């Protein structure tokens, strides 16, 4: 055999052994999905449901691992440093688009050190109060905040979290000012709402739906252009008297930079197939969310758009003074 045919044979064998060529058989061992928040929050619940569906499709375990702290950056950083082979992934929500305004110096670049894989399960953000709260409508709540600026309290999973930015965005739109009470996670903030420690909370519907079905909270408004199909009794922000405001939260999945495009595409196809399954369709609707899908490119575009929006909130003088 001459050198040229031998070289071509070696090249072909190398391609067969590469992740690109074997992407169709991916995964052939367990996959870890890092959730950068404590258990029980919306991202955690949606990720666990997705992991179960991916496991059904592939026959491989998709293990959810919670690595909470520093507004999700501890978990994100662990995936940035993971092997770029598709076997370590991370999920997050719209908080991912907030990172440039939360931290002046990050040890990684969110939009270049992580590759977007897919976006899925689009959940409205909702204003929640305790079931027996004196605030019966969104206008009741906003009116009280305007009458006594900085005294109406809201709970979040910490400063710089998505509920923090979303609540401040609502305050900007309504010309009202609130007082934040930070907790370790969205679940703790909901518990504070139930005990009357705080006046209200803005969170995505997956984290609130259980308490809503149990009758312990009421929702005053949800984001989106129309009422959620599973929450027909809850008005949109526009219907509640606050047009032009409302951020729909998504769950997204990312992989380390350098993960082969064919593996990213394979993961995206698995997620898309999962979102078309009756189980994921029913689950999304049961938590007041829409069972949609974005491919990696669409996820990247939407993160960029939302990053630009949050920049306006971060530039608000009242927000900067806190």
Report the sheet-strand fraction: 15-25%
Number of domains: 2
State the CATH topology of the largest domain.
D-Maltodextrin-Binding Protein, domain 2
Low-confidence stretches: 7-21
Task: Give the ordered list of helices and strands.
Answer: HEHEHEHHEEHEHEHEHEEHHEHH
Secondary structure class reads alpha/beta
Estimate the mean pLDDT confidence.
90
Whole-angstrom Rg? 21 Å
Distance between the termini: 74 Å
Q: What's the count of strands? A: 11
Q: Briefly, what CATH class of the largest domain?
A: Alpha Beta
CATH architecture of the largest domain: 3-Layer(aba) Sandwich
The largest β sheet comes out as: 6 strands, mixed
Helix content: 40-55%
**What characteristic shape results from the CA principal axes?**
globular
Describe what this molecule looks like in 3D:
The chain is of the alpha/beta class. It has 2 domains: 30-122 and 249-312, D-Maltodextrin-Binding Protein, domain 2; 125-247, Periplasmic binding protein-like II (D-Maltodextrin-Binding Protein, domain 2, 3-Layer(aba) Sandwich). Helix content is 42%, strand content 20%. The protein is built from 13 helices and 11 strands. Strands 2-1-3-10-4-11 form a 6-stranded mixed β-sheet, sandwiched between helices. A 5-stranded mixed β-sheet has the order 7-6-8-5-9. The chain is globular, with a radius of gyration of 21 Å. It starts with a helix and ends with a helix.
């Amino acid at each position: 055999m001459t050198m040229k045919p031998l070289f071509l044979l070696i090249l072909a064998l190398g391609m067969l052994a590469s992740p690109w060529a074997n992407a169709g058989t991916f995964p052939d061992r367990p996959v870890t999905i890092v959730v950068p928040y404590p258990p029980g929050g919306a991202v955690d619940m949606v990720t666990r449901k997705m992991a179960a569906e991916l496991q059904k499709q592939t026959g491989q375990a998709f293990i959810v691992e919670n690595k909470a702290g520093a507004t999700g950056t501890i978990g994100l950083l662990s995936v940035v440093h993971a092997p770029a082979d598709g076997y370590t992934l991370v999920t997050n929500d719209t908080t991912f688009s907030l990172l440039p305004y939360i931290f002046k110096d990050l040890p990684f670049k969110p939009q270049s050190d992580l590759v977007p894989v897919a976006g899925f399960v689009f959940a409205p953000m909702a204003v929640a109060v305790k079931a027996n709260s004196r605030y019966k409508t969104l206008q009741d709540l906003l009116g009280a905040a305007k009458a006594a600026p900085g005294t109406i309290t809201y709970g979040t999973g910490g400063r710089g979290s998505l509920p923090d930015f979303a609540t401040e965005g609502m305050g900007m739109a309504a010309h009202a000012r609130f007082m934040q009470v930070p907790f370790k996670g969205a679940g703790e903030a909901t518990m504070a709402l139930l005990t009357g420690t705080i006046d209200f909370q803005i969170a995505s519907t997956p984290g609130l739906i259980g308490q809503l079905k149990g009758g312990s909270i009421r929702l005053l408004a949800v984001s989106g252009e129309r009422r959620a199909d599973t929450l027909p009794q809850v008005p949109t922000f526009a219907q509640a008297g606050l047009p032009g405001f409302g951020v729909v939260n998504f769950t997204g999945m990312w992989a380390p930079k350098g993960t082969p495009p064919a593996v990213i595409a394979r993961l995206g196809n698995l997620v898309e197939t999962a979102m078309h399954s009756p189980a994921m369709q029913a689950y999304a609707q049961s938590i007041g969310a829409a069972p949609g899908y974005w491919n990696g490119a669409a996820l990247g575009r939407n993160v960029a758009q939302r990053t630009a929006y949050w920049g306006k909130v971060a530039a608000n003088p009242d927000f900067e003074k806190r």
